[in-house]
Design goal:
With 856 residues, the protein is an alpha+beta fold. Helices cover 43% and strands 18% of the residues. The strands form six sheets. The chain has a seven-stranded mixed β-sheet, sandwiched between helices.
Length: 856
């Protein structure tokens, strides 16, 4: 039985594991290819979906293009941007920034962003054309189309371009990729498991083969009889060949040992006999003769033993031949140099043909030296002094191989004995009387076979023998393969798209223009709140919010962060916007807070702000956070305030329709007693009025009836409430509920109605300007405003309403929803708010409003 080997795994590897890893690598490559394919498909699908929305937006704008008074005009539809501003419920609105541009036939701007890149030629894209570009440091997708507009004396192609950043596209592509690729991943995992199981089953026959070999007897070298699987048949065949060679080698070794024992036995017996004779001999002369015979037999035994060992060595080296280039010419010179002292008077001549230089032969130098030594020694031994021995190295005719010839003038070898003398212990008849072992030519023959050479014994013309060795064409020597420098792997990336980034030249609505329209100059007031502890940082806040409403928040923030000094600068909404756009070198704010949500959104859309990830926003609605750059933190309804002392409860309008009926039926009684915002100078008033026009189909009728009643107008809620409190007005429409609630808490005879048809809700919005010197501190203040603690301060100690759902007090979103039947309609922070900031849209709206209320 075979002895079982140790089970240690040192120096071994698992074929099963290696095969599994390679197949797993193939699966990984396949999975990677599928990932790239699905990813490309997801991007194409997302582009196709959003391109349809872009096209719809551009077409809706194109439908409103008209010519009036010799000018091209456009009334930007709310839907044109709102369809692009849609997002998930958790987001409240889409994250994409939106840009648009309308260009007249002569290339002059009609409205929009004048620096938005438009590559399409006028009149060349009746259907929407799409292109990628970079605008305001953001990658955008641009849809461009042309619309032909004509009137007598004026006609041409107006170009409409709408651009959208790629955040929503990328989010949709990621969703498609995840939904499509996840099943592929699970399938690949299942395939990997099946592959592992299949490999185990497929390699099971190898275990059977192992058992067959392990159970075999040590002397059993017969071929494996077990029919192997086709995939390992070559392996089994190789094992069988190995066993055959092993058996042959063992047989050879046994034959060699038997021959060696037979050959050595004779000289050893002769030595023993001579020694016994010497022991019984007293004659000195006889003893001298016996000693000479003993010496001769010892020399023969020594030579025989040396030849036997050389033959064994040659056989061994032939089995494990590791060819190297051998200079056969130099080797011949060494052999002849050593043979000349033995040859005595017999000359040995070496002739090397120049064509044979360099005489390189791939092989083993030691074996070749032994073979050449035996050839030359045989020539010296059998030729005697009959003539010179000629050794020559030449090229074989018509071949690249080398040829060695050793020629002597000895007795030669008969043709019938030439095969015999190449075997072990084979000697010819001409060798009679010459001491020898019969192994010399056998060694030469073995070396020649191992090197692919041919040994030939030829008769020499004129008498003698020629031993010829023909080597095959020599393999090309080892040369250093040189090549071109390796190139780096194929470039897998695409060349970067170089796009021109345009600077923000002008806004859609210039706050400076609004300030010019408003005859009220902007005033600022700075209040410093020293740090309660050791002052280490300073936070500078610009806010278009009454200081009394924000002061409790600032003081409580300093209780949480006692090392921060807060500078609170009270500015108007227009000046606040202008400061952010202008990016002054000095007096830079860290945080901007405003109730003009549309202007804050425009700052974000135009790239004037920076993002901030809020620490805790789980209780805040998605509509109050846009792109993690604009954060709403209050929930303030627009209400109807009235004089409780002069207006009976049964006459209080609970809906807008009721207000219309009241003004229509008793216009004389309410003359000069209704008040509302002057939307031409009030940003909040314009924001509320524009959304009323969207939601209430009779809005312009309501405005007209207010105009008939000679409506009073004011810039802000405080002035409107003053009119009611002083008795100058019975009803104030669209007043911020937070201000009205503060007046009621102070004892003013003011009633509050939340319109039951719908109630608009605005939120004060905080943004961090891009040029903020201390954005980290601004982020801390935003985190505080959005935290449960900050929202509780909003509900309890300020005049504002808390937004967070974690706060359930009366002055909170939850409290409002539980105390009224009115549906609350928050004005979401999204790019749709840009529609009413379009200068043409705003101008048209204000002209219509002035006409309706009959303002000069």
């Amino acid at each position: 039985m075979w002895r079982k080997s140790a089970t240690g795994s040192e120096g071994t590897y698992s074929l099963r594991r290696r095969l599994f890893i390679r197949l797993l690598g193939v699966l990984a490559v396949l999975t990677g290819c599928l990932f790239l394919f699905v990813d490309a498909y997801a991007r194409r699908a997302a582009d196709a979906a959003f391109d349809r929305l872009l096209a719809a937006s551009a077409l809706s704008i194109a439908d409103t293009v008209r010519v009036q008074d010799g000018q091209f005009l456009v009334d930007l539809p709310y839907s044109s941007l709102s369809i692009l501003a849609q997002g998930g419920e958790e987001q409240g609105g889409g994250r994409d920034r939106l840009f648009y541009r309308i260009v007249a036939p002569d290339g002059s701007p009609v409205t929009g962003y004048d620096d938005l890149p438009v590559t399409a030629k006028s009149g060349g894209s009746v259907r929407p054309q799409f292109a990628d570009a970079t605008y305001r440091d953001a990658r955008v997708r641009v849809a461009t189309l042309d619309r032909f507009v004509a009137q007598p004396g004026l006609a041409g192609w107006v170009t409409i371009a709408v651009a959208q950043t790629r955040e929503e596209r990328q989010a949709l592509a990621r969703d498609i990729l995840a939904n499509a690729f996840l099943p592929i991943v699970f399938a690949m995992l299942a395939v990997a498991g099946l592959v592992w199981f299949g490999i185990r089953q497929a390699l099971a026959p190898l275990g059977s083969l192992e058992r067959v070999l392990r159970d075999r007897h040590a002397r059993d070298l017969s071929p494996i009889a077990m029919p192997p699987p086709q995939e390992v048949s070559q392996l089994v065949h190789a094992i069988n060949q190995l066993m055959e060679r092993l058996k042959s080698n063992l047989d050879t070794m046994q034959t060699f040992l038997a021959d060696a024992a037979h050959q050595i036995r004779t000289p050893l017996a002769s030595l023993r006999l001579q020694a016994e004779l010497a022991a019984d001999e007293d004659d000195p002369a006889a003893l001298r003769r016996i000693a000479q015979r003993v010496h001769r037999n010892a020399v023969e035994a020594s030579q025989l033993t040396s030849q036997l060992l050389n033959h064994a060595m040659v056989m061994h080296r032939s089995e494990a031949l590791n060819p190297e280039n051998v200079d056969i010419g130099a080797l011949l010179e060494q052999v002849i140099q050593r043979a000349r002292p033995v040859a005595g008077e017999t000359p040995i001549r070496l002739e090397v043909d120049p064509a044979a230089e360099p005489g390189l032969v791939p092989g083993d130098a030691i074996s070749l030296r032994e073979a050449l030594t035996n050839v030359v020694d045989n020539a010296v031994k059998y030729a005697g002094s009959t003539g010179a021995i000629d050794v020559c190295l030449t090229r074989r005719p018509g071949d690249r191989g080398l040829r060695i010839e050793v020629a002597d003038r000895g007795p030669g070898i008969p043709d019938a004995e030439k095969t015999k003398v190449l075997t072990r212990f084979g000697r010819g008849s001409s060798a009679a009387g010459v001491a020898g072992s019969g192994l010399g030519l056998a060694i030469v023959h073995s070396v020649a076979e191992a090197h692919g050479a041919t040994l030939s014994l030829l008769d020499r013309p004129g008498g003698g023998l020629v031993a010829r060795i023909d080597f095959p064409g020599a393999l090309a020597g080892t040369t250093a393969a040189t090549g071109s420098d390796p190139v780096a792997g194929p470039s897998g990336g695409r060349a970067a798209l170089l796009a021109v980034a345009f600077s923000a030249l002008t806004g859609l609505w210039s706050p400076q223009q609004s300030a010019a329209q408003t005859a009220t100059p902007a005033t600022t007031q700075t209040i410093t709140y020293p740090a309660p502890g050791t002052a280490r940082d300073r936070l500078r806040i610009f806010a278009a919010t009454d200081r009394q409403a924000m002061e409790p928040l600032v003081l409580d923030f300093q209780r949480v962060h006692p090392d921060i000094t807060v500078e609170y600068v009270d500015v108007g909404t227009s000046e606040l916007y202008a400061r952010a756009v202008k990016d002054a070198e000095t007096d830079k704010p860290d945080l901007l807070i405003s109730s003009a949500a549309d202007l804050q959104v425009k700052l974000v859309n135009d790239g004037h702000t920076q993002p901030h990830i809020p620490a805790d926003s789980q209780f805040l609605p998605g509509w109050a956070n846009w792109r993690n750059e604009a954060f709403g933190f209050t929930f303030e309804p627009a209400v109807i305030a009235y004089d409780r002392n002069r207006l009976p409860d049964d006459r209080v309008p609970r809906t807008r329709d009721a207000l219309i009926r009241l003004l229509r039926e008793d216009r004389a009684h309410y003359g000069r007693l209704v008040a509302t915002y002057d939307v031409t100078i009030s940003g909040i008033g314009y924001l509320l009025a524009s959304h009323d026009a969207l939601l209430f189909s009779q809005y312009w009728q309501l405005v007209a009836l207010m105009g008939n009643a000679q409506v009073r107008t004011a810039c802000c809620s405080a002035d409107l409430l003053d009119m009611v409190e002083r008795g100058e007005a019975l009803i104030a429409y669209n007043v911020l509920g937070s201000y009205a609630r503060a007046r009621v808490a102070a004892g003013a005879p003011i009633g509050i109605v939340m319109p039951e048809d719908y109630t608009l809700v605005i939120s004060r919005v905080a943004v961090i300007p891009k040029s903020a010197p201390r954005p980290r501190l601004a982020g801390l203040f935003i985190d505080y405003l959005l935290s449960t603690r900050g929202q509780e301060v909003v509900a309890d100690r300020s005049a504002l309403y808390a937004l967070s759902s974690s706060v359930t007090r009366e002055a909170s979103a939850a409290g409002l929803r539980s105390s009224t039947v009115a549906p609350l309609q928050p004005i979401a922070l999204s790019a749709a708010l840009l529609v009413f900031l379009d200068p043409l849209k705003r101008g048209t709206f204000l002209r219509q409003w002035r006409s309706a209320v009959q303002l000069p």
